[in-house]
User: What shape does this take?
Amino acid sequence: MLIFLFILTFVLISLLFYIVRIIKLTKLIYNTARKDSNVIIWKNSRILYCDKPLMELLKKHGIDVNDFRNFSFEKINFYINKYPFLKEFFEKFRVNFEEKLFEYETTIFLSNEFYKIKFRREKNKTTVYSVLLITNVILNIKEYTDELISSIYKIPEEFFNLTTSDTSTYELVDYFFNFLSSQNIIDSLVVGIRKIDGSINIIYGKIGDKKFKNFTIKDKTLISYISDTGEKLYVNNSEELKLPEEYKLMKVINKPYSIYGIPLRIGENVFGAVLFEKEGNNKFCLKDFHLFEILAFLISISIKLKNEYQILYKSSKENFKKAIIDPLTKAYNRNYLFDALNKNIKFSKEKSKYKIVIFLDLDNFKYLNDKYGHVYGDKVLKNFVKTAKMVLRKDDIIIRYGGDEFLILLYDLNIENAESVIQRIRKMILNSEFKVDFSYGLMYFDHEKSLEENIKIVDKKMYEMKSKKKKLNL
Assistant: This one.
């Protein structure tokens, strides 16, 4: 009786271990497989199971399954030399050979057929299980195409319009988040741009109930890792993610979650990354990945367009400034007078914006130039404009009309106040280091006449003053 109980106990324990093993294998395959995949499973270094269709498939493409019946770290170079189309996989396998969990997914082209390869290797104390699944994409092209196309149809057309509109990138990404979360696809979305100093500027972050905008992270995080490597990364369990020492994962919640990270790039230039996150393990599927790829591309375009716009806007602003500003005195020039300002003056006919026009000419400026040199003459001109600006108000305008001639337009003043302004300028100039007197003409701006006609009249008044001064000096 005791022997029977002992045997029964042994059988039950063996059965229990077998069940646990089956559960582990089932979980491993579930985490890796698709229903239409061919599978091969290793326990430690030996093949535990290989389905017949896969053996036939490998044979068809000249792959000898016997090469893999007892694989080891030392045989990796042999595999690379014999099967060069799998070089990338074996090189990554070598680097991650000692890791507790290693996953790899790619698509290869063999004999006019596309195959999706997915590999998962998981260490369990003293046992290592490896699963390789191969799916013929061509044979299942309809299913794959339907999945990909359905993900495109999910994207509202307005997203494409918003990408190139005046909408800020922050608003655009917020649209994306609201759409994806309403579809129960993601819980969190983070977009980061790498700055010159290596830090990351989070231009958009939606994590739980919190939103972030223009938040700088100096530590190297997952976004930094994806930006630095320029490679996409799928993490089906955040608890199992291992990054190089210099990087760390900023956990958004205290539960495992799935992450899909995509580098933001235009061409070969990687400038940031976007993270799509969902609470729970293995929460994303192929069509989600495709959807994320499209949205990441739209975000990249949006950021690039906004940056290019800023550069062009800044450049055009600087060029416009150069075109309307006198480089020596920093007063406006005649380009500004007869282009932008002329339109403003015509518009102000009803508004009565500029009421006073003054034309000034520096007295004896040629004499100062001849006696003290052109460098001194330049300083006189610069000092005159600098002093005049100290007296003039924000909306008043001073223009270098040519040589030592200046035009001043005064905003909403009468003749008496305008005379007071001119005398204050004269007093400050005559008390400065680069003193010079000037003659001027002053009048109310006649909006019934053109700008040129107004200047001609006030120029004549200036010459009348200059003539009187000459007679007095004589």
Q: What stands out?
A: The radius of gyration is 39 Å. The CA atoms of residues 44 and 128 lie 5 Å apart.
